[in-house]
TrEMBL record:
Family that this chain belongs to: Belongs to the ribonucleoside diphosphate reductase class-2 family.
Record-given protein name: Vitamin B12-dependent ribonucleotide reductase
The entry's keywords: Cobalamin, Cobalt, Disulfide bond, DNA synthesis, Nucleotide-binding, Oxidoreductase
Taxon lineage: Bacteria, Bacillati, Actinomycetota, Actinomycetes, Micromonosporales
Region feature (Disordered): 1-20
GO molecular function, one term: ribonucleoside-diphosphate reductase activity, thioredoxin disulfide as acceptor
Organism superkingdom: Bacteria
UniProt domain Ribonucleotide reductase class II vitamin B12-dependent N-terminal: residue ranges: 49-139
Length: 963
């Protein structure tokens, strides 16, 4: 880790060198009461945090007697305890109270603020510390995760979550890139890099040979990221790789992940384990990075007008090839349609809003695309919980919001004074330009609670006004800090450019034409903040070259008990809520009844509508709910999901008021076409976005198979019916059902990784499997004895009524030697003998729909799925014409793969009890009757939910990105 700069280091100021005597900040109380410590205003309670795997009940984490406010949810307390408390569990050094965590962080910020001259007096420093403590205690805002991990501990004081690296056209630089990226991954953060300086594979080396090209070096970086992940990280390495659209290797870059997706399909159909986290997925390349193409206005104009576009050499800028711009744009959209990569970054728009162009262009972003600034730099983030500023009458607490932004932005700037960085280059740039990323969470919940549809003009007006007020206030405070502790070191050479961008923000604010009372009040205050801030900035300069971004807010959103993350709408109207003492329950989001009251519904109707949502998961046909109010309750997924352009329009509404960009993926339905992707990417450019990525449902193989989706007829059983089923199970006393003396059986010889054995399976004449015997060694050997005992245990369990699918779900994917190739055409690869045996038993004795849920198929069924998908894709161009004459059958349920008659499957679904679920995503799957494209958490195994352009686990707080 790079050492933090001492007095006199680049970009670091001290109270002696920069602060004018008595010119520090005067801090006024906003949330706190003089003479009363924030901790004394809340009721505290002791809890036991025991994290279990919901599938098998095993304990992942245990710490008893932790202390949290009574108002904090079980989930928030669990995540803070497991993720942020420092010290070894079971030792006296282990933190056990939220007080200790907050004090560790806030005391460090206060001490640094006093040391570097931010406060006028010790009394002001104390008020500042109390205000920060109150806001953190009441979940008004949160710093990003590295602050909670590192600040106030013996570890290096890394406070940044987002990093941008650089790489030049030399082997030394490329190897430095590998090393620097590895250090960042090791710390659990993410980094992005633009590879466009590297010579293309169509250019010559000085030795006379041909260059390898950037795509070849991506392989090494991808392998490095995968190795670090497998070396112990609880989430994948988060990285972004970018290539300019005029690079001669752009077509190869665009196709990289789409080609690998074809490879995944082929290996999957051959029996290899290609699921996320599967044993064989590591053989596929480029899976540890998000890819983005940096497009220019010149290119997009050529796409619009149908012209040619030049690809230029990296050394001399000479044209190497002229291509059809429309064709390349189509190739980009086709690849994104197939595998969600690449996204687009709009280069000229990004650099038009750049405050420091004299220092260098913005060429790259962090992995989630919200941080866009200079190479070799970093950004620390913090996010406000917007629902904490909504009054009971639906109005917005503008004054408290302004004051809260002041506190947060001040604390974030103080952190740069004491922070450590992974490399000296990143440390020097960050101290010189002091990039900050204030943002927010719970926008979707705020709009719904206000009775405003997410995809509506009024909803976008409120979002734009709040975002403008946040950034305007942040820059105004930054200008005030510049008068106290000095402008950022790079300001002098970039002063005119910085002022120009501030005027652009202010002009965009003036262009908001609010119609609602909330948007009007917020926008009026935003105008004041921009006017005052630019006036102060003209005199003092600004302390920070960047102030705001919209991050995913995955883990910290859960810490703040937010219903929605970042700029996202609600995921669904129903979700899981963890209960004290263990267990969980399904609830309707609390924003729903609040929204209904805002819309004027009486309490009796509110209760009836909420009950309908609890039963059905949506508002359609809810008793007494007016159809014109349906859009208020539209979500990211479910019966009424927000259209892709609705997400793009919301991004466009807030983008002019963000220093950086927005972490958000635009989800598209499975039946979306390549033309739809082209339209989204083109409109993103027209609407002034800086970056945009899409995800088409089920476009990746490393997700649940389309055929594994539950039949739509399989509606979850009503709650009352489920309770009755459970009640019967509790009262039921198992009775062993022995097999008759003469029973049908089959014996299969098998080989797993070269180890041979025999499996004999006996069944009841009319009712499935009842006995298994395994033989893998000579009689009398230890292994033979263990196999005999295991066979008896499984057989007795089956005869007492343990479902075969329970054994299958437990023993498949169990990994130990011998493992590897088998001689069974239906199960080509096995992670162990147990994995093979129970996959084989599933194929022989479980009906198709049960196996589909478990992801176990015969070779013939996999081939039929592939054929059906290919046929559907081949017919995709004719979908529009077909829709005019007949319903179109999507590839979601290929008939060729169905091994059971449709009526039989429907009958089975009708009597099947509600499926077991462990997260809000899985609950949503049960409600809507189809699988959601979300990875499983590497830590606890539950299905994650979207958070910006990555995913977060509701169970343990792990994320798949860099938030």
């Amino acid at each position: 880790m790079g050492d933090r700069a001492d007095e006199g280091g680049e970009g670091v100021t001290t109270s002696k060198s920069r602060n004018k005597a008595g010119a520090g900040l005067k801090i006024e109380r906003v949330w706190t009461t003089e003479g009363v410590h924030p901790y004394d205003e809340v009721t505290w309670e002791r809890r036991d945090v025991v994290m279990t795997n919901w599938r098998d009940g095993s304990i992942n984490f245990e710490q008893r007697g932790v202390e949290f406010p009574e108002s904090w949810s079980v989930n928030a307390a669990n995540i803070v305890t497991t993720k942020y408390f420092r010290g070894a569990v079971g030792t006296p050094q282990r933190e056990w109270s939220l007080k200790q965590l907050i004090d560790r962080v806030v005391d460090t910020y206060r001490t640094a603020g006093e040391e570097y001259g931010y406060f006028a007096s010790p009394a002001d420093a104390e008020v500042f510390a109390h205000e920060l403590t109150w806001m953190l205690l009441h979940q008004v805002f949160s710093f990003n995760s590295p602050v909670w991990f590192n600040v106030g501990t013996p570890s290096p004081q890394q406070v940044s979550a987002c990093f941008i690296l650089s790489v030049d056209d030399s082997m030394d630089s490329i190897l430095d890139w590998y090393k620097e990226e590895g250090r960042i991954f090791q710390g659990g953060s993410g980094a992005g890099v633009n590879l466009s300086r590297i010579r293309s594979s169509k250019e010559l080396l000085s030795s006379g040979g041909t260059a390898s090209g950037p795509v070849s070096f991506m392989r090494g970086a991808d392998a490095s990221a995968g190795t670090i992940k497998s070396g112990g990280a609880t989430r994948r390495a988060a990285k972004m790789v970018i290539l300019d659209v005029d690079h001669p290797d752009i077509e190869e870059f665009v196709a990289t992940k789409a080609r690998e997706e074809d490879k995944i399909r082929a290996l999957r159909d051959a029996g290899f384990d290609m699921d996320l986290g599967g044993a064989d997925i590591v053989s596929v390349q480029y899976q540890n990075a998000n890819n983005s193409v940096r497009v220019s206005d010149e290119f997009m104009t050529a796409v619009e007008n149908g012209g040619g576009f030049d690809l230029r050499g990296r050394l001399d800028g000479q044209t190497i090839e002229t291509i059809d711009a429309k064709k390349l744009f189509r190739t980009i959209a086709q690849a994104a349609w197939e595998c969600a990569d690449p996204g687009l970054q709009y280069d000229d728009t990004i650099n038009d809003w750049h405050t420091c162009p004299e220092t260098g262009r913005i060429t790259a972003s962090n992995p989630c695309s919200e941080y866009l600034h200079l190479d070799n730099s970093s950004c620390n983030l913090a996010s406000l919980n917007l629902m904490k500023f909504m009054r009971a009458d639906g109005t917005f607490e503008v004054e408290k919001f302004v004051k809260s932004v002041e506190f947060v932005i001040t604390a974030m700037d103080i952190s740069i004074c004491f922070a450590d960085f992974p490399t000296e280059k990143i440390g020097a740039t960050t101290r010189a330009y002091r990039q900050l990323g204030i943002g927010y969470a719970n926008l979707g919940a705020l709009l719904m609670a206000s009775g405003l549809p997410y995809d509506s003009e009024q909803g976008r007006e409120v979002a734009a006004a709040i975002t403008s007020l946040m950034t305007g206030t942040a820059y105004r405070r930054s200008a005030e800090l510049a008068g106290i502790v000095g402008a950022y070191d790079g300001y002098a050479r970039n002063a005119e450019a910085h002022k120009r961008v501030m005027r652009k923000h202010a002009a965009a604010n003036d262009a908001i034409k609010p119609t609602g009372t909330v948007a009007t009040a917020v926008q009026r205050e935003a105008t004041k903040q921009w006017t005052l801030g630019n006036k102060v900035g003209d005199k003092n300069g600004w302390r920070n070259s960047q102030a705001s971004v919209l991050a995913p807010t995955g883990t910290i959103g859960l810490m703040m008990d937010c219903d929605t993350t970042g700029v996202e709408p609600d995921l669904a109207l129903v979700k899981f809520k963890k209960l004290v003492g263990g267990g969980s329950m399904q609830i309707v989001n609390q924003t729903v009844p609040r929204a209904l009251r805002s819309l004027g519904y009486p309490e009796e109707q509110v209760e009836a509508i909420v009950e309908h949502i609890a039963d059905h998961g949506h508002v359609v046909d809810a008793p007494g709910l007016k159809p014109e109010h349906y859009p208020v309750f539209d979500c990211a997924m479910g019966e009424r999901s927000i259209a892709p352009m609705g997400h793009v329009r919301m991004m466009a509404a807030v983008q002019p008021f963000i220093s950086g960009a927005i972490s958000k993926t635009v989800n598209m339905p499975e039946q979306a076409t390549v033309e739809d992707v082209e339209k989204i990417y083109f409109e993103g450019w027209k609407l002034g976005l800086k970056a945009l990525a899409i995800y088409r449902d089920n476009c990746k193989v490393g997700q649940p198979l389309s055929a594994a989706k539950k039949n739509k007829a399989a509606e979850p059983a009503p709650a009352a019916e489920v309770e009755k089923v459970v009640e019967k199970v509790v009262e039921y006393r198992p009775v062993r059902k022995r097999l008759p003396k003469k029973r049908p059986s089959q014996t299969i010889s098998f080989s797993v990784g070269g180890a041979e054995g025999y499996l004999t399976a006996s069944s009841y004449p009319d009712d499935g499997l009842g006995e298994v015997f395994l033989k893998m060694s000579k009689q009398g050997s230890t292994l033979a004895g263990v196999m005999d005992a295991f066979s008896v245990a499984i057989s007795i369990g089956l005869q007492y009524g343990v479902p075969l699918e329970t054994y299958v779900s437990k023993f498949t994917n169990m990994r130990f030697e011998p493992a590897g190739m088998t001689d069974d055409p239906d199960v080509r690869m096995a992670a162990s003998v147990m994995d093979y045996i129970f996959r084989r038993l599933a194929l022989d004795f479980l009906p198709y729909e049960r196996r589909a849920e478990l992801g176990i198929f015969t070779a013939k069924e996999r081939a039929a799925q592939l054929q059906a998908e290919a046929e559907a894709e081949a017919n995709g161009a004719d979908l529009t014409a077909m829709a005019a004459s007949a319903p179109v059958e999507t590839p979601a349920e290929p008939k060729a793969a169905v091994a059971q008659p449709a009526q039989e499957m429907a009958d089975v679904a009708a009597v099947k009890p509600a499926p077991s679920v462990g997260s809000s995503t899985e609950l949503l799957e049960a409600v809507i009757g189809k699988a959601a494209d979300a990875p499983l958490c590497f830590t606890c195994g539950t299905k994650m939910r979207p958070a910006g352009s990555c995913y977060v686990c509701e169970g343990c707080g792990s994320t798949s990105g860099c938030s």
